[in-house]
């Protein structure tokens, strides 16, 4: 009896759905020769180094230069380096020295919790080895710290093809107690501090705004990024950062095509009047306790938009508090929020959005994100009725009559954080160790 045969169009699609399960992908690669290529592509397209032990193992593999290992390094398109568990023996600073020459097709490089403030002779050459990642176009720094602004600039300028920069954390760099003990004292300054030609920029700050963040913006605006930046995504609590943020939006001007931003409550310093080519706007509303104020602020912001090219508008509404605030616990909370939504001036908002500026809109998406810390309440009829009531309020917008409004619900925030924690726990060791 002949062995059943599945065409590659089907097997490739099946394997594509298993991209985040290394164990199953490894098994798939051993099923048949026709399955190996797709399985190995997903196995090695993203390489995660989560601790010192797998890092040391990868170093041995790289130095061995075995014929069956070298092609696997060439498959890596994204490298993630987690230095959070390696405080005694940090290895993030050594990664470029070891892997830059082995990953010619690397596109995305991510560093997590890397501390580059302490200087060693090895770290003095760190930016020079970063420059060997000639194919990297996207750099993500999550919780990473440099000694000062000059060191931060040195890291960013090291990548010759960098187009996308994303920085998360409260202190991208700090001023050391002794200015001589930093990377800049051991290496010459970069030949051109104006190297960045960023296409997209993302800045996320978890707690509060620091002066260092303003320095980052001021530096980037002195580079060619001022004319090449098409997409900006910013998140920071509070409003003290609005004045420099408004200056950045004004400086970027017509080159900005996409903006992902918190709701701008400071209408005096933050406007979109200079962004005349804006095509996509994402508004994140997290002030769930004062919806009338939030929608009033959007009405003011919408009245200042001058782009006739706006095609897509997205609202991310975080209902019933942010992560560190009490969430919805019962029917009493639904009644309280229902009263707040009653105070929204829908007539004034519709008057603004019926203008010529919004006539070219093709899609308006409202995504409701619920903070439900009571898992049982979300299964009750009271909660389902409240969700329907909120949807009906949102449908008062003129966009619903035009047929371009869609409303979706994201998973409860407590479920999202549970999922993220599981993802962190299940990262496991590097897939390369299965092919030694």
From TrEMBL:
Q: Which domain of life is it from?
A: Eukaryota
According to UniProt, the name of this protein is F-box domain-containing protein
